[in-house]
Design goal:
The protein is of the alpha/beta class and 208 residues long. The protein contains seven helices and eight strands, in the order E-E-H-E-H-E-E-H-E-H-E-E-H-H-H. The strands form two sheets. A six-stranded parallel beta sheet has the order 5-4-3-6-7-8, with helices on both faces. Strands 1-2 form a two-stranded parallel ribbon. It starts with 7 loop residues before the first strand and ends with a helix. 32% of the residues are buried.
Length: 208
Amino acid sequence: FNLVPDIVLTNGPYYTNQSCSVPIRDGVALRSLATLESEFEGMAGSDILVLLPYYRDEMIELMVMLKSSSLAMKRIKIKPHPIYDIFDFSPYITSSWEIVDDNLNKLLTHSEIVITIGTSTSVDAVVMGKSILLVSKNRALMTNFLIDDGYKQIWDVATTSADIDIKFDTLLKFREKEPQVIKEVALRYKEQLFTVSTSITIQKAFDL
């Protein structure tokens, strides 16, 4: 149906190494401007932020697993996906958790660790130096936008409620012990996964 593109523009240079049936070249990151323009403040912030995913079954699975972990008693900020009403997930909320609807970049800035699954915002969070805990019962089928770099350092995966407790503590201990490693991983993500949008990079990407 003549729907195959002539060329694929990527968000950053890392993706140009992927195999594809059509030519791939570096484009520009048009979505994460606030993340790319902000100064690195990765070690600032102390909040625990949960970003609920788009798919309802993943959202419920994440909430149930968190509620069965020790995090059920911790103060947590929960940012729902905008397509959902608060009543869609209120049965899974504990008295220690707070539903928030603040600006996402502001929430990330004030956070120390982000718990989520199936969201590309996890990449933005790593660039900002935030630790990421992905939660899914089925690791083989989960959606993960992160690359191997920083695994077990700035990000990890939990597949059970008990695993959540272990990985949560391990990630926080690592960032406390190795802040320079966290900063270096965040910088590599920024350089590899994002091409900053400027007049020059836009003209080059779109042959203007």
